User: Fold these one by one.
Assistant:
Number 1:
Amino acid sequence: MAELAAPAVAPRARKRASVWLRLLRHRSGAIGLFLTSTFVLLAIVGPWIAPYDPAKPDYLNLTAGVQADHWLGTDAFGRDTLSRVLAGARYSITIGLAATLLGALVGGAWGLWAGFSGGRIDSLSMRLVDVMLAFPGILIAIGLVTLTGPGVGPVIFASAVFGVPVFARLTRASTLAMKERAFVEAAHALGAGGGRIMLRHLLPSVIAPVIVFATLRSGSTLLVASGLSFLGLGVQPPAPEWGGMLSDAQLYLAVQPLMAFAPGVAITLAVLGFNLLGDGLRDVLDPTLRT
Amino acid sequence: MTTYVLKRLAQAVPTLLGVVVLIFFFVRALPGDPARLYVGTDADLATVEAARRQFGLDRSLPEQFVFYLRGLAQANLGQSFRARLPASEVIVRHFRATIVLASIAIALATLLGVLLGVSAALRRGSAVDLGITTTSILGISTPSFFLGILLIYLFAVELRLLPVAGSVSPRGLVLPAATLAAAGMGTIARFARSSLLETLGNDYIRTAYAKGLAPRRVIGKHAIRNALIPVLTIVGLQFGFLLSGTVIVETVFNYHGLGWLLIQSIEARDYPVIQGLLLVFSVQFVLINLLVDVLYAAIDPRISYG
């Protein structure tokens, strides 16, 4: 087996390199990659490059507009808006990515297992998925976060569960298509166990659409997560989460609209980045997913 | 066809039964005591106990579950804790507001989405195409709570053209409907564009050109009609999402529909109203998806009703 597997590595590595190249040549894919990496970088360094402490009030300088020492003005407590948006990247981006990843992992594993096992496990799983999908969009997340109470962890959990049924259904469909193929039959014939077939043979062949879909889904997960905080159910003030900042800014819209524009533009650009990157990845990796 | 519809309806039954059970236990698992919330923090224990008895919360969980199921079987959602009215009446009162808002939004999203998608596809690669494609993806990427605030700032605060908070007056509906429509419009436009492009690449379109038909006729009679069939699915799915999107949009505009009512009822732990609302939302969603599949099968003769 080892001698047979060895030559397969080289072409795969070459193929992977060309995916990046093709992505960079894809107009919206390149813009998406740029936006996404910028925001991921901000999530890491944001709190460090923020010019002020995002929680420090300045009562002599409330709801200020653009100034030399406050580029995006200040909020109702005199806190520097730029610093809050920069520091907020760590909340909003991390929550969005962690929730998508968790949803993709749990949903993907579930779908793989259900599709591979078939029979009663499969039909029971899909019944449960149907029930979860019977609640439109954000409602499941709203429900879960009211159960767990507010906070970063609960928001990640609620937004992850929002993705689980969709990932489960997607992975199950590709698994069903793949498990009838000759290479799976061959693995069975060679005496491979269920776990080995799932992980070594099925997983690599069903993962491409999951990656593409996870990227596209990151945008909507970010929207749901910040929506929870906007509704006051998610991350609580004074944490500079973008959705929560927008909710605070609503009251001061006539006084200082920058308070709303700054976090709003940040969420929009981040979601746009994920959507464009997802479009690009789909075109490059898996054109059959185009809908 | 009838067998297909009946079969799909039958398939929806276990799903909705699951939904009914899930909703009951979800509401009971919510932290916080509805009786305490109802009588206020100052009330003594006896008053709290009285409220609890009045709401039927002093009974055991299985008893409450049977009571809830028996009520549902008689189309009775129970008494609202907060409003002292049947929960169904509270929901019906807010239902109209949401249906009006969502219907205007889906009409707007479909009309503009198809128009933009078709225009982009017919001028593929031009500046118009780029502009429309950019607008569509921005529509999808902008959070509705930000778009709503942006529109309020522009049209209510700066230009003073429209009222800030949504009322059921036609003028008050403009901003919430536009906000709610944006994401759907973007999705529909993108889908209509790619569907038309795909259709235009078909052999029968080349045949239609080859037999000397005018481009206007080829596109109008042959391409667009076929390209719009799959768009129907997206419109239906968007309508389902739109109904749940009202939760955020109605909060932004303080528009008293079902979404607004849901957030209020969750805060007050008004179990019967939350249960009823979640049931309404999921039944709507399941029925819309079913309707889309049925319509799709009815329009496209290539789909069998197997």
Note: Confidence is low (pLDDT under 50) at residues 1-10 of chain A.
Number 2:
Amino acid sequence: MKEILAVSLFFSKSLLKERATAIFVILAVVMIAIALGLSDINIARRFKLLEDVLLTSQMFLLHIAALFYAFEFLQKERTLGLFVLPLSAGMSRGRYLVSKFITLTIMVMSIFFSFLALDAVILYFIEKEITYMLFWQLFLYALSALVLGFSIIFFSNLVSLMNSVIYAVALFFIGNGLDEFYIYAKHISKDALMQYIASLLFYTVPNYSIFDKQAEVVNRAYISTEQFYLYPVLYFFALLFLIFSASYLKYRTKVLRFGE
Amino acid sequence: MILLGHNGAGKSTFINYLLGFYTKMEDHPFLREFEPHLPKIEKKDIGYAPEAALLDLNMSAGDYFKMISILRGVENYDSTELLRRVALKVDPDTPIKKYSKGMKQRLLLAVALLGEPTTLVLDEPTSGLDPFGREEIETLLISLKEKHRFIISTHSLELAMALEEEIWILREGKIEFKGYVSDISELKRLLFKFRPERIR
């Protein structure tokens, strides 16, 4: 564990020094300013629009951050051979792979916590209450962003880096519309082919819509505890396990090239 | 062990195979030839220095020492002393982006020396350096030969002779010569003898 942590912290420190990290936080502040400008407009509920703009922009930024850090790390790994020194010093491939996943987690969670701190202060001053549900939704977006980043790491074992990003982003878009598609296939169309496609997608594409309860959150609508707290977290860990296992199977025998 | 040979002879492939970057024979056509010659060395006994271009410019010498010391299980080390051994006069916290190419190569040597490994594995340590930088690194390597064994790929015949290690000459993935030579002219003659057809 000590080895994994040392390598993860080394990689994270390097990524944190990238200018993009500061840009993500600055963009979040800009979006907060825009959201504050809209805070007087009441649609259905006071502050609904403010919360909507905040969550949407930060959801977007979290996913962009995950995509950027995964891409930047993998790019450096290929050109600079980041794996060379850890592996030549006796670290196993499995442990090195774990440290890649942990590095991405540290980076996305750093962005998440900085957003959380900003939101907590701003919303407390405006709404005069601690909006736990909003914070939990932001955390679910961070998990969704991590799934996107992990998918890029997984695909990078099989295809070029650019294609890895394309495949992962394509899955993200499909996965975001899965809930609606399942409802359409099972309850509206009821066509056998549609239902077959729905069940095929269910087992092959990560269901990103599980992490999105924004509409219910900003409308203060009822969400069951299981749907809001339990299922997304369980689903995330199940996906993480699957993505890591599949990546490990490929990575343990992969030819490791660098300087490309 | 000094690995000599033309570009594409397989020197870097041999080192990468030794370090475990290839796992299956099908990964590279040279591996079957190299397999019986591969020295059995524990990874913890290896200090590896790749090419200087492979350092992360966002980081510092201190960051590299910290990570590698944990991986090698070295509890106590002195960053300043390590830098002094490779004649690198910088603060351990100076970002690597401020280093020259020669300084980066020295830093890699310092990282390789951390924990006093018995074998130093170096892949073309003077590649891309100007004559002054090259001489500095070669002098440094020669000063280390008393305490360490070398597995080094190089095009420098002077360095190969000065290190007094066994010489291996590779040609298109085959180890054509293994042994010691008495002087540089004999080494030159051998290298020309084992140059590939396309160069002839």
Note: Chain B has two domains: 1-41+118-200, 57-116.
